[in-house]
Design goal:
The protein is mostly helical and 220 residues long. It is 81% helix and 0% strand. InterPro entries: AA_ABC_transptr_permease_3TM, ArtM/GltK/GlnP/TcyL/YhdX-like, MetI-like, MetI-like_sf.
Length: 220
């Protein structure tokens, strides 16, 4: 049985799909703003085994790494407002859910990057009279960053994919908009083909940026 493809009809909805794409990128950036500094802090606390705080970091990381993103989104949207007594819109709820979970994975990336640096680097810094945190800031982390870049961009890609779950609380990200367009036009194949291409361009762009940064770091 043949199928008559009609992409021209879907082109009328491109502005709506692009708006959805912008909302997806907005979610991505917001989630990373939470995940990167929080994950960096948690990773250092865990790797350095800071009393009490290190244990709390382990608890946080294990909890969020074992959680399902969809459940976290539902909880942040429906349960968190009850707990804190403040209304939370869909954007903030999804940002918190994705950002807090991504922070747990970011912490493991940071911990792995720090652990990969040889013990000799620590010993050399201490021999120069550096304190532990000074050594971490000026000696260990600059080297660890280079090794963390490829895995960090894998995390970025994973967050991009998880943004497609935001539609369950009616946030108008790309997938949610695409679903509405396909329901309105009855052109699901064309709609999701275009959406797939948009996701591909974004994810491929992130991968290309990762390779570019790797080459730049390697040349230094």
């Amino acid at each position: 049985m043949g199928y008559n493809w009609d992409f021209l009809y879907i082109l009328h909805y491109i502005p709506e799909l692009l708006d959805g794409g912008l909302n997806t990128l907005k979610l991505l950036v917001s989630a990373l703003i939470i995940a990167v500094p929080l994950g960096l802090t948690l990773g250092i606390l865990r790797q350095q085994k800071v009393p009490i705080l290190g244990w709390l970091a382990v608890l946080y990381i294990d909890f969020f790494r074992s959680s399902v993103a969809l459940v976290l989104i539902y909880w942040c949207y429906f349960a968190l407002p009850i707990v804190v007594g403040v209304a939370i819109n869909t954007y903030l709820a999804v940002t918190l859910a994705l950002g807090l979970q991504a922070a747990a994975f970011m912490a493991e990336i940071v911990r792995g990057g720090i652990t990969s640096i040889s013990r000799g680097q620590w010993e050399a810094a201490r021999a120069l009279g550096m304190r532990k945190m000074t050594c971490m800031r000026y000696v260990i982390l600059p080297q660890a960053y280079r090794r963390m870049i490829p895995i960090f961009f894998l995390l970025v890609v994973e967050v991009i994919k998880n943004t497609a779950l935001a539609g369950v609380v009616t946030y108008k990200e790309l997938f949610y908009v695409a679903f509405n367009v396909s329901s309105e036009t009855y052109k699901s194949l064309e709609t999701f083909t275009i959406v797939g291409l948009i996701y591909f361009v974004v994810i491929y762009g992130a991968s290309s940026l990762s390779r570019l940064l790797e080459r730049k770091m390697a040349s230094r």
